[in-house]
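We give the chain.
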Amino acid sequence: MTNLETKQIDPNKEHLGKIYAKALIDAAEKSGDTEVVVTQLESLLTDVLANLTSLASYLQSPRVALEAKTQLLDRALAAQISPVLLNFLKVVARRGRMDSLAEMAVAARHLFNEARQMVEVEVRAAVELDEAMRSQLSDVLTSSLGRKVQLRVQVDSTLIGGIVLRIGDQVIDGSVVTRLTQMRQQIRDRTFQQIRAAIDRFADNA
C-alpha cells in the first residue's frame, strides 16, 4: 500500500480508478514509457498537488472551464511530464474525474507491478537506510516472496530502532523475521549513534 492510499476507501472511486488506470497503462505500454508515466503520476499527486491544495481544488472544481484547466496543464506540466500522461490528465479533466486521480495512481501502480511480477513493500525505519541496507532488505524479501520487490522507504523517528514492513495484507513469516534480525540491530545501533552525536553536540555548545 502506498502513501496515496487512504484508510477510507470510496468503492465508486476505486472502481473508476481501475478503469482509468487500465487505459493509462495500455497507452503507456505502447509508448514504452510505462514506468516513467506511473512514477510521474504518483509524483504529481504527492509532490505537487498534495502541497498545492489550491491547484488541486482548481483542477477538481466543476466551476472552472475545461479550456482553463487544459491551458493550465499545458503551461505547468507539458515540459515536465510524458505526453502520454499529459493527454491522460486532459481526458480526466474533460470527464470531470480529477477528484479520483489518487485512486487512478494507486490502481496504475498495482497494474504495473502485477504485469512485471513485482510486489510493493512499505518500509518504515527509525533512520534513513543507505543503499547497502536497501539492497540487503530487497534481496531478503525477493528471496522470501519469490517476486521482485519495490521498496517504499519512509523514516519514522517514533520507532525506537528497528523497521516495520507492510506487504499489502500479508504477514511476514518467521524465517524472514529471523533473517532481518541483524539488519534491525544495525539500524538500532545507528539510531543510538545519532542520539549520542546529538548529545555530544549539545554538550559542546553548552
Summary: The chain is about 65% helix and 10% strand.
